[in-house]
Amino acid sequence: MKKILIDDADAVEKTVAILREGGVVIMPTDTVYGIGCAYDKPTALERIIALKGRDEQKPIALLAGSLAMAAEYAIILPKIKAGLMEVWPGPFTGVFQKISGEGKEGMRVPNHVFVRAVIDAYGKPLWMTSANKSGQLAQTHVAAVARDFQDATDSDMLMVDGGDIPDSMASTVVDFTIMPPKILRMGPVSRERLQEIFKTTFQ
Predict the structure, then answer these.
(1) What is the pLDDT of residue 122?
(2) Is 182 within a domain?
(3) Which terminus of the chain is more solvent-facing, meaning fewer CB atoms within 10 Å of its CB: N or C?
């Protein structure tokens, strides 16, 4: 596994190059360290699931660079878009109907300059999940992340060292495919704030 510092002058370019190769990237986000790959590289997504020892049936969210990009991949109603403008970018994941067929898609716009720069440079969302072994706590300390994946020797796997990030909660997750919307995981955005923003009650 290759390693670079997040403040390297060409860190974004190196990260995008790995994504284009169908590789896997570990990087800090606005919540925890994440491990991800490009939206259009399904084989890389399978590798992430194997690296984590994750249940294949457990969904992985997409990180988009903007609300406009998210709307290219998920059906987001106008009244929901208005609320999303209050919580994105930030620690909030919305679950929507896929725009390209059956099924649901979890979408988030992260509030992290580097991650969004990578997404914008690549031009498509990233599949992203927490960079830890399945069943263990999500990591905010770079040394712990490196330890979890120290056996990864693939040359098309990259770790972006952004140093330790502040301890924080995982994102709030809401399913908007049902009405009233259902809170699947409580996080930094409280139920009261959700009701104020989206002007509806929540399950």
Answers:
(1) 97
(2) yes
(3) C
Report how far residue 159's alpha carbon sits from residue 88's, in angstroms, rounded to the nearest whole number: 26
**108 with 61: CB under 8 angstroms?**
yes
Q: In terms of DSSP bridges, do strands 33-38 and 24-28 run parallel, antiparallel, or are they unpaired?
A: antiparallel
Whether residue 52 lies inside any domain: the answer is yes
Q: Which is nearest to 165 in space by CA: 55, 34, 13, 71?
A: 34
Alpha carbons 50 and 179: distance in angstroms, whole number: 34
Separate counts of helices (H) and strands (E) for the chain: 7, 11
Query: What residues pair up with 38 in beta bridges, in sequence order?
Result: 126
Residue 153 is predicted with a pLDDT of 76
Question: For 137, which DSSP code?
Answer: P
- Tell me, what's the pLDDT at 101? 78
CA 181 to chain centre: 21
The answer to the question of residue 95 being in a domain is yes
Which tokens is 171 given? 């994102």
- Find the domain containing 115 and state its range: 2-198
Instruction: Check which CATH number belongs to the domain holding 123 and give it.
Output: 3.90.870.10
- Indicate the number of domains in the chain: 1
Q: At what angle do helices 191-198 and 78-87 cross, to 10 degrees?
A: 130
Q: Is residue 203 part of a domain?
A: no
Tell me if the pTM is above 0.90: yes
